[in-house]
Design brief:
The complex is a heterodimer of chains A (614) and B (345). Chain A is mainly beta. Chain A has nine helices and 38 strands. In chain A, a hairpin with a 5-residue loop joins strand 29 and strand 30. Chain B is mostly helical and 345 residues long. Chain B contains 17 helices and two strands. The N terminus of chain B is likely disordered. Classes of the chains: A mainly beta (614), B mainly alpha (345). Chains A and B meet through helix 1 and strand 20 of A and helix 5, helix 13 and helix 16 of B.
Chain lengths: 614, 345
């Protein structure tokens, strides 16, 4: 978009008093040029926005088309004031005017040009004050900050007048003079005769983007002299005048696909710098301005890969002062999961284009060296052998089945299956969570374990990749060992019910490996993840994860899986499941409540008196 | 509720008793000419090229007629019944006419006329319960105790705390939307003598300041993985009627002014604190204390001016209204010290 003429500030403000005479100058507005020879024309929209949505025809304010001087064309009397204050809640009412700018003379009723600035006029319910009642600050500057923006690479020009036209008109007896305090070599000049401030040369934002000056004002009244200083700030606005470049000349990166083959995986990242700023708001338009396109004729490549572009502000210091720039990151991402059988390598080129830069070097080419390696679905050389205690109960976890590198896989779905043996001894099964990369072997029928004829059982395990249907097999040997314990009577189904160390280890329950529950002794300090509890196996319960076997029956490990109430000091686990941390001893009645409490009742010790038999 | 007392110097015949927009809408609907003009104007404003539409003769007549109707000056009350409906009516007119690209927008809420001193009077009723009013006391802890002794405050506070600390899954720390809703209920339904004490308690040590920072459960309601750009945040806020109104209200009541002693508009601390609390009650622009420092109070929404491009100046101006706002800072300090501005009658 062509910039054209523009205003060096967004808002202006001034006070207007009752009965100020027609012709009173109010404020001076400036415009800066985009190219030499442009002439600014100022125009006022004949519509006053009176506080809130109300608007009114403008009968009082005019602007000089050539000079930008806003003045009162008609005195504002008390009646006008009342009319404009209707619906105003504050005693101070503000009206708003839009000033438009064009390089050609304005036609009638033009009120919608894009280049405009806003003037706020505070209507003061009083006649103009005496000069003697005004403070030096009020005589010298308006309340608005002296803050301007100047576009880089544009011709120099005057952009502000320090003298306030209204004050100059009102207080002609006072001597008010200004000075602009600037460090040596700053590209600004103050003209004492006009009090105008101009920029003397084209600015370059990539050199410096902010100038901080001080405007100093001296008021002399007879022998009295007062001075006021305010900051005078100039921000340099950026345009796209820098091409993209590569840090250290790096334009290539390796992208290897092996175990991680899942859609969305970031394979490699290349960085492009640009000295220009890139607004992250609005995000989409900035993305469109800086594009990254995969250059390929191969439909497989364009389906399988995509490029993601993110960018961030960085700073660099060309000559001491800090300047903002942009770091663009182009990430090569898998657009879909890749089959385990896929095997190829090629170079993938990405064209990065700075679409708004108008030079020859507007684009750079990035190269990704892509290697897609196949992965084999096979079990490690050895066969599995597990020993199972004959006293193990249903849902006891025996071990994990995992093909080579299974924990490294992402985006590969392996299903584990037990092929049924011919024999009648069949005590175990395999279960697998939805995203689990391994299979868990557990006791499914504990009565089989007790049968004397079942001693050593052989299974075949099969692992299948769901996508390619590739599969592999291995042998599993189960050895049953141990002698059968006598079952305690009155024991609950679930270890978690036991509240004390002794009763815990006397009983068994669902999920136990050796026929007895295990006691976990906690740290006993406040509410802790290491609380005391009774569990079928300290290895798996509680470990903060309600795994696929524990979730089969709420009696196995309510400490990890309960969704019911927990009474006493506690912290809940992820997704509101289980007891993450508890106070003292935590115990649970499956399908009902859990309790965490300090065990205050000490176990009765038998002292000397109690040992004495009378 | 009667209108606020007119400030001195207010012109008497320009004054209209304000009607809330829901009521104004009913009044307008009962009058055939008003309701048809309102429909027309809404169509004029809904159009894409608003300026051309507004230049249309029919639109202008509609505008002129409506300027005389109660709809034009209508406002809303914070926490009123049908607040959202009221704000929708308000913005249906104002959004079109004020362009929506202004830096500061006028508040659609009625001005706050009560003063901080009103809260202090009430606060002193239960300050008697505090065991120690000595220099060692932790005001933020006292505020929590006072809240727990009030059934309503206790119920809504534990309500938002449990909602905001409920972990959903390993990746989702909490439900931000539900947390914001619960916070909104707390700040809308609990009297400000309780909520302000929790939010603006004064602190002498870090533990106290940390408790103050934790008041709104910032890990859920405030912090996020990334800090968005403040202008982006403002833009998102402005697409929502409620958020837009609360932000406009904050700008109206907390905008630093050179013309008053306290830097606050009309020297009204209560109005500024109320707008601040209104903004906290949920939404993306929720402000909070940035750290547990006791020496200086710094407040900010969860955003930064990184990546503002040419709008950096505007972004910093927006952010400074939170981080370096003398009105807001004075108001918070005045509340903590129990001092209000002495107003000559």
């Amino acid at each position: 978009a062509a910039f054209g003429l523009y205003f060096p500030r967004k808002e202006y403000s001034e006070n207007v008093y009752i009965d100020q005479p027609a012709g009173t100058p109010l404020l001076r507005i400036h415009a800066l040029r985009d190219s030499h020879g442009e002439v600014a024309h100022f125009h006022l929209c004949q519509n006053l926005i009176v506080s809130r949505a109300r608007s009114h025809e403008n009968n009082w304010f005019q602007i000089r088309e050539k000079t930008g001087l806003l003045y009162l064309s008609q005195s504002l009397d008390r009646e006008d004031f009342n009319m404009l204050s209707v619906g105003n809640w504050m005693s101070l009412s503000k009206v708003m005017l839009y000033v438009f700018l064009s390089s050609h003379p304005f036609q009638e009723k033009e009120c919608d040009s894009a280049t405009r600035t806003t003037v706020f006029l505070s209507l003061i319910n009083a006649t103009a004050p005496a000069c003697s009642s005004l403070t030096a600050r009020q005589l010298c500057f308006t309340e608005m900050d002296l803050s301007f923006h100047i576009k880089e690479n544009k011709p120099p020009g005057t952009f502000h007048q320090l003298q306030l036209p209204s004050v100059h008109n009102l207080c002609q007896n006072l001597s008010i003079s200004y000075k602009l305090l600037a460090a040596e070599g700053m590209p600004f000049r103050y003209n004492e005769n006009t009090t105008g401030v101009s920029v003397t040369q084209r600015l370059d934002r990539e050199e410096r983007e902010r100038y901080e000056l001080i405007a100093k004002c001296t008021v002399r009244e007879g022998f009295r002299e007062m001075q006021v200083e305010v900051p005078f700030l100039v921000n340099v606005l950026d345009e796209d005048d820098s091409p993209p470049f590569l840090p250290n000349g790096t334009d290539a990166a390796d992208a290897v696909v092996e175990f991680n083959r899942k859609e969305g995986t970031v394979l490699a990242t290349l960085t492009v710098y640009d000295a220009d700023t890139t607004p992250i708001y609005p995000l989409e338009s900035s993305r469109k301005k800086y594009t990254g396109t995969i250059i390929t004729d191969d439909p497989w490549i364009s389906e399988t890969f995509r490029v993601e572009h993110i960018f961030d502000e960085i700073h660099f210091s060309p000559n001491g002062s800090q300047v903002r720039g942009t770091q663009h990151e182009y990430k090569l991402v898998l657009n879909k999961s890749i089959s385990v059988t896929e095997h190829r390598s090629f170079q993938l080129d990405v064209l990065v284009n700075d679409t708004e830069f108008h030079g020859p070097e507007r684009s750079v080419m990035l190269h990704f060296n892509v290697s897609i390696l196949p992965v084999s679905i096979q079990f490690p050389n050895m066969t599995y052998q597990f020993t199972v205690n004959r006293n193990a109960e249903r849902f006891a976890q025996i071990g994990k089945i995992c093909i080579e590198n299974c924990m490294k896989f992402r985006g590969v779905n392996i299903t584990y299956k037990l092929l049924s043996p011919n024999a009648s001894c069949y005590p175990v099964s395999i279960l697998q969570g939805r995203e689990d990369k391994y299979g868990s072997l557990y006791v499914n029928d504990s009565s089989v374990l007790r049968r004397p004829e079942c001693k050593e059982i052989q299974y075949t395990i099969q692992a299948t990749d769901r996508q390619s249907r590739k599969h592999t097999k291995t042998l599993l040997t189960l050895v049953l060992e141990g002698t059968l314990l006598k079952k305690e009577e009155d024991c609950p189904d679930s270890c978690a019910v036991s509240k004390h160390h002794a009763e815990c280890e006397e009983c068994g329950g669902l999920g136990v490996l050796t026929g007895r529950c295990q006691w976990r002794r906690g740290s006993g300090k406040g509410i802790t993840t290491n609380y005391s509890t009774c569990t079928p196996s300290i290895k798996t319960c509680p470990d903060g994860i309600c795994d696929v076997i524990e979730s089969r029956d709420p009696a196995v490990c309510p400490q990890d899986c309960t969704s019911g109430n927990i009474i006493g000091g506690h912290g809940k686990g992820t997704g509101n499941l289980g007891i993450k941390s508890g106070h003292g001893i935590c115990y649970c009645f499956p399908r009902q409540n859990c309790y965490c409490e300090k065990d205050d009742i000490k176990e009765q010790l038998c002292d000397d008196v109690c040992k004495t038999v009378i | 509720l009667a209108g606020p007392p007119s400030p001195p110097g207010q012109d008497p015949h320009g004054w209209r008793v304000p009607v809330d927009c829901v009521r104004a809408n009913e009044l307008c609907a009962a009058e055939p000419s008003c309701s048809s003009r309102y429909r027309t104007l809404r169509q004029c404003l809904a159009g894409r090229d608003r300026n051309t539409m507004l230049a249309n003769k029919e639109c202008q007549t509609a505008l002129e007629v409506l300027q005389e109707s109660p709809l034009y000056d209508c406002r809303c009350k914070r926490g009123m019944k049908k607040e959202l409906q009221c704000l929708q009516i308000y913005w249906s007119i104002h959004l079109g006419l004020t362009e929506g690209e202004e830096f500061y927008e006028a508040s659609p809420y009625e001005p706050v006329t009560s003063r901080l001193s009103d809260i202090f009077r009430l606060a002193s009723i239960f300050s008697g319960m505090d065991p120690a009013a000595n220099s060692k006391s932790n005001h933020c802890l006292d505020a929590a105790k006072a809240c727990n002794l009030n059934d309503n405050c206790k119920r809504l506070r534990s309500g938002y705390i449990s909602t905001c600390s409920k972990e959903i899954s390993a990746t989702e720390h909490c439900s931000r939307r539900k947390c914001h809703k619960a916070l909104r209920q707390f700040f809308d339904r609990v009297p400000s003598e309780y909520t302000y004490r929790l939010l603006f308690c004064s602190c002498k040590d870090q533990a106290c300041a940390e408790r103050r920072r934790q008041t709104i459960v910032p890990s859920c309601s405030y912090e996020d993985k990334e800090k968005p750009n403040c202008l982006d945040l403002r833009n998102t806020c402005r697409t929502d009627h409620l958020c837009r109104s609360r932000l406009a209200d904050f700008h109206t009541n907390c905008q630093a002014s050179f013309q008053s002693l306290t830097s606050c508009p009309g020297d009204n601390y209560q109005a500024c604190l109320g707008s601040y609390a209104g903004l906290i009650a949920g939404f993306d622009v929720t402000p909070n204390y940035v750290d547990a420092s006791t020496a200086s109070i710094t407040i900010s929404p969860w955003c930064s001016c990184r990546g503002s491009g040419n709008l950096e100046e505007e972004c910093e101006k927006f952010l400074r209204d939170f981080t370096e706002n003398p009105c807001l800072r004075n108001a918070i300090q005045a509340f903590g010290n129990g001092t209000d501005v002495n107003l000559s009658p």
